[in-house]
Prior knowledge:
alpha+beta, 316 residues, 10-stranded mixed β-sheet, 7-stranded mixed β-sheet
Amino acid sequence: MIDFLIREESKPSKYGWSPEKRPIEEYIRNGIIILDKWSGPTSHDVADFVRRKLNLEKAASTGTLDPMVSGVLPITIENSCKIVEVMQRVNKEYIGIIHFHKDVDEAKLKEVLKKFTGVIKQKPPRISAVARKLRKRTIYEIKILDKSERNYCLGVKCEAGTYIRVLFHQIGEALGTGAHMKELRRIQSGSFSESQSHKINEVIDAYNEWKSNKNENPLRKIIIPMEKFAENMKKIIVKDSSIYSISQGSPLFTTGISKIQKDIEAKDLIAIFSLKSELIALGIANISAKDMLEQKASAVKIKRVIIERDIYPKFK
């Protein structure tokens, strides 16, 4: 249960929709598909395949999985593509098979894995699209799940941007045996888990059911509102009368606030919501929740407007 401070009680207007009640076209435009990526294509190719099959203008993958890697790959659709950058920063969880080039002493392996828990340094592989500069990444957990001869199945929880292929190579170097990644599957991306993911044929079948038989239900079960991503972010709920100015990129002033999450501090990343629970914008808090409650000031600097401009009018 989120603890909110109430600055001003306010009622929603007739404009906008609660995320689950959006008309199907708007529901799709503001949705995310938690796709179970198959081995073979790049993440970009998968997103483009979804775009073409669902007759969309825009679809984007939230982060990168190597072509051979399968698993959880959230795909943003149309307007929800605005949150891709933030979604890419979430923590990830993988199950992978590391193949050692020589026999391994398991006790020694466990000691090495402990050394790779915490902050490590990595250089992106040559095939990556980013500069090959040494950078720090955090491994929250790495453990042995199973083994068969020189193949070990490892579970890894890590910061976004960690290269598991490189990590496995580093482990092999530390052991003095050499090693490479044999297989990898992502089972979690932020709050989205493998159990929420869907095969591409399920997505296509649901879309065709809507187009052919006007049955929206299967598609609504697969596509989830983008607001689900922001559920764990710090929140401010604004009055409907402030949404138009925010949609134009104006800062959020305290006079436009209805409720404030109690633990907000200056410089926190904030998700701004409507009274109907629509994601309006993302921004950086200028002041704390306490100050937002007591002062007349600029509360949040808007970093990314999410809601489309024609949803809420300028209130007189």
